[in-house]
Amino acid sequence: MKTYGRFPLTLVRGAGSRVWDDQGKEYLDCVAGIATCTLGHAHPAMVQAVTQQMSTLAHVSNLYYIPQQGDLATWLIENSCADKAFFCNSGAEANEGAIKLARKYGHTRLGIENPVIITAKASFHGRTLAAVTATGQPKYHKNFAPLVPGFAYAAYNDIAALESTIAELEQDGPQVAAIMLEPLQGEGGVNPGDRAYFQRVREICDAKKILLIMDEVQVGMGRSGKIWGHQTLGVEPDVFTSAKGLGGGVPIGALLTKDYCAVLEPGDHASTFGGNPFVCAVSLAVCRTIEQEHLLANVQARGEQLRAGLAAVAAKYPNVIDHVRGWGLINGAVIREDAEMTAIEVVKRAMNDGLLLVPAGPKVVRFVPPLVITAAEIDEAVEKFDRALAGG
Ligand SMILES: *Cc1c(COP(=O)(O)O)cnc(C)c1O
């Protein structure tokens, strides 16, 4: 339906952090299907899990207990602050679940008739109607009115803005059921959350008994250098969501919550495909491989190497690159506002030179490679980024 503005590139094969197009040209993949191919391409552990589970039992529906879903839930709970998991198929769908949970929590626990969820400006939470309303960027709302009621927006990393938004909403009594934030804003420009801000948000939520929901769809599953972005911030959410890297390339999303706010009961929420044996077996293989191959250590080391390399390139082009920011293997080179260069131009030049990158807004070039990327490949990415900037 022409919903995508696509690059003129057809990829047909991949291995590790490399992909090849239909002409046989090789690319170093620092996009990873938009922060999704956690283990790169054609990882043997995924191939094995896909083959084994597909040849055994792929889908049965949630009318029946699914052992692979139980095993994946157990892994996620043992590796996070959550007590309960619900599985769906995408990030937007996971956030829809979080929004429904927060509304029910608002009605049943806080006695609020029209609960409001506060999100951040420049945030991104997905494209379904409620998720796109939660997304604090007007460009995604255009032509889709009427939007879903019950959302308000406050500037990210700005406690005064959050406090005044709450005060305005609650002039006549409690209104706010939840605050929903990305630990690091991905689509909004690879903008990391501020520790002091998040700690204060946690205190506000505790004091008001409202939910802190964290959208870990892009930054979770090891990309930050810890399994979850909120661990990098030193703050525990009440509810958080995952997708993208969770399946390593198969479609899966998850809504995770603490016991005390797991208010959804039988009949409240469902998904036909959600958590089927196939996706859960593959996702579990991704989780176990992160542990077995010590990928968090690789993310931390390769992330430091990448940021140092990009900063050195940035210093060569002070009129183009303002600064480099990010965590682990989610990093952005921020182009100066007054530079003519746009992120998409840099991405196109890099693509010609065999490096895949993705913009995060008009002025940020995003690097989100597979978590298995090697030191030599990071050096190669930095070199090609340097050449892309030199090329104009
Ligand atoms: C990509 C993304 C989403 C939406 O995920 P889909 O799987 O495309 O629905 C939601 N939140 C964040 C933070 C994302 O990066």
TrEMBL record:
Keywords: Amino-acid biosynthesis, Aminotransferase, Arginine biosynthesis, Cytoplasm, Pyridoxal phosphate, Transferase. It comes from the Bacteria. Gene3D superfamilies: Aspartate Aminotransferase, domain 1 (3.90.1150.10), Type I PLP-dependent aspartate aminotransferase-like (Major domain) (3.40.640.10). One of its GO terms (cellular component) is cytoplasm. Its main location: cytoplasm. It catalyses: N(2)-acetyl-L-ornithine + 2-oxoglutarate = N-acetyl-L-glutamate 5-semialdehyde + L-glutamate. Binds 1 pyridoxal phosphate per subunit. Its cofactor is pyridoxal 5'-phosphate. Its EC number is 2.6.1.11. SUPFAM superfamilies: PLP-dependent transferases (SSF53383). GO terms for molecular function: identical protein binding; N2-acetyl-L-ornithine:2-oxoglutarate 5-aminotransferase activity; pyridoxal phosphate binding. It holds the Pfam family Aminotran_3. The modification N6-(pyridoxal phosphate)lysine is found at residue 244. Pathway: Amino-acid biosynthesis; L-arginine biosynthesis; N(2)-acetyl-L-ornithine from L-glutamate: step 4/4. N(2)-acetyl-L-ornithine binds at residues 127, 271. It is found in: Cytoplasm. InterPro entries: AcOrn/SuccOrn_fam, Aminotrans_3, Aminotrans_3_PPA_site, Class-III_PLP-dep_AT, PyrdxlP-dep_Trfase, PyrdxlP-dep_Trfase_major, PyrdxlP-dep_Trfase_small. GO terms for biological process: L-arginine biosynthetic process. Pyridoxal 5'-phosphate binds at residues 91-92, 124, 215-218, 272. May also have succinyldiaminopimelate aminotransferase activity, thus carrying out the corresponding step in lysine biosynthesis. Homodimer. Belongs to the class-III pyridoxal-phosphate-dependent aminotransferase family. ArgD subfamily. PANTHER family: ACETYLORNITHINE AMINOTRANSFERASE, MITOCHONDRIAL, AMINOTRANSFERASE CLASS III. HAMAP family: ArgD_aminotrans_3. This is Acetylornithine aminotransferase. It comes from Romeriopsis navalis LEGE 11480. The lineage of its organism: Bacteria, Bacillati, Cyanobacteriota, Cyanophyceae, Leptolyngbyales.
